[in-house]
Amino acid sequence: MQQDRDAALAILQQYAHTPAERLARVPTERERDWFETVEVLYGDGPKQERDFRYRDAMRRLSEKYPDDHDAAALYALSLLGTAHDGRDFAIYMKAAAVAQPVFEANPLHPGAAHYIIHAFDDPVHAPLGLPAARAYSEIAPDASHAQHMTSHIFVAMGLWDDVVTANVRARDVQNAGLERKGRRANACGHYTSWLHYGHLQQGRLKDAAAGMEACRERMADGPTRGEAGYFVNMRARAVIDGGDWGAGGAIAADLDAFADLGLPYDFVDALAALRTGDAEVAARLRSRYGKPEDERDPRRGILLLELDGLIALADGDSEAGIALLEEAAAREEALPYEFGPPATLMPPHELLAAELAALDRHAEARAAWEEQLARTPKRTQSLLGLAGTAMALGDEVAAREAYAVLAEVWGGADAGVAVPARSGKSGNFIPWPSYAR
User: Fold this and answer.
1) d(Cα 210, Cα 220) in Å, to the nearest integer?
2) In this model, does residue 429 exceed pLDDT 80?
3) Residue 1's pLDDT band (boundaries 50, 70, 90)?
4) Among residues 410, 413, 426, 308, which one has the least CA distance to residue 357?
5) Which spans in 315-395 are helix H?
6) What is the pLDDT of residue 423?
7) Could you give the count of Cα atoms lying within 13 Å of 167 in the half-sphere of its Cβ?
8) Alpha-carbon span 325 to 310, nearest angstrom
9) Nearest partner of 76 among 129, 127, 39, 29, judged by Cα
10) What's the pTM value of the predicted model, to 2 decimals?
11) CA distance 2 to 148
12) 185 CB-near residues (< 8 Å, 6+ apart)
């Protein structure tokens, strides 16, 4: 969705000054047909309008040259580029239908594998993208982004060992490239944040803490806006998914230079304050921000709704509190699926389920846990919650099933992150304190 049109036009003008002059220099019809698509991509008019014209140009090119795998792959990418409002299943499936035959005919085509992964990287369709994900890391072993891209499918399927392996490779390839250029390693980036999330899901809390500390140290040395954003997200994951409500103070940072990060940063501290019984601190942090509907970013509005709901619950108004959390969950459902770690720092269905369970409304809580797991498969915090709720409802079969998945996910967990017993009895494991009231 981003494009540096000025830089592209500067390069084109080195070839010739006008589109007509450039096309006149192209020696063959086939090359000219390709070149015309570039002129559309960087032509006149608003980018969103050009996206549709470029899609049509790539469709014509791929139809004219049906044996050209590159034309088909870039046509698939151009389709994805028209999903301006976020994931649109109809558009994404059209892109997959174009890229999949290329991958089947040429299993080493990097573009086909890459765009198949993008088309399928949601929990509904991810299994369809698994063959491409398995292949892509071998197709492009020296491309850090290719190594990372595989984990789009792995996260959407809850394959945490694969998530970690993919992002370790991505991080190492990226940092080797940075070292060759005399630049420092990236401790707060896309790959390291996904790696951190994978470690937390595996129960490898020491590895997660080491990654978090490296990112925190980076905050003291002039971080970029992007690095600071990843720090805030990793900090949220460390506190919420690590289940340690007192951890926020130890991984604090001065981010006054990035005003837009104030809300997600304060949200974590307010949530931790509520979980440790300090509603006054939470209310003070909440007072820095306006109404949820005033936020242009809907996910920021969801964070405020979550805080409002929890504050109402802390004040003893369970009806109003649950209603606000239900609204937060409904707003999440109205948004397109996001890939990767939870885009909303505290997944709304998970939070709603935890609060319903705390009120002994277990049947409603179970539905919310199951909805969260449909959105974030094998997310350990929701598996724990579902297991506890199933036990409260007397459904030991469902509890054992959830515990069995946890036992598999936590096979390499740190000591102290106990693996649930196969018996389904809740007394034989240590639930993370995320949902303790």
Assistant:
1) 16
2) no
3) confident
4) 426
5) 318-334, 348-358, 362-375, 380-392
6) 36
7) 29
8) 8
9) 129
10) 0.92
11) 20
12) 175, 178, 179
Please report, in angstroms and rounded to a whole number, the separation of the first and last CA atoms in the chain: 42
**Spatial CB neighbours of 339, under 8 Å, sequence gap ≥ 6:** 121, 122, 152, 155, 156
Given this model, what pLDDT does residue 437 score? 38
Quote the distance between the C-alpha of residue 296 and its chain's center: 20
* Whether the Cβ atoms of residue 303 and residue 267 lie closer than 8 Å to each other: yes
Q: In whole angstroms, what separates CA 243 from the centre of its chain? A: 20
- H helices within 123-186, ranges in order? 126-139, 144-157, 160-180
Determine the residue type at 295.
E
pLDDT in tens, 142-153: 999 999 999 999
**3-state class (DSSP) for residue 87:** coil
Q: What is the pLDDT of residue 418?
A: 66
Determine if residue 158 is left, alpha or beta; phi over 0 gives left, psi from -120 to 50 gives alpha, anything else beta: left
Residue 283: exposed, middle, or buried by beta-carbon count in 10 A (0-12, 13-18, 19+)?
A: middle
DSSP-assigned letters across all residues of 80-92: HTT-TTS--HHHH
User: Are the C-beta atoms of residues 107 and 123 closer than 8 Å to each other?
Assistant: no
What whole-number distance in Å separates Cα of residue 103 and Cα of residue 250?
47
In the DSSP assignment, the letter for residue 84 is T
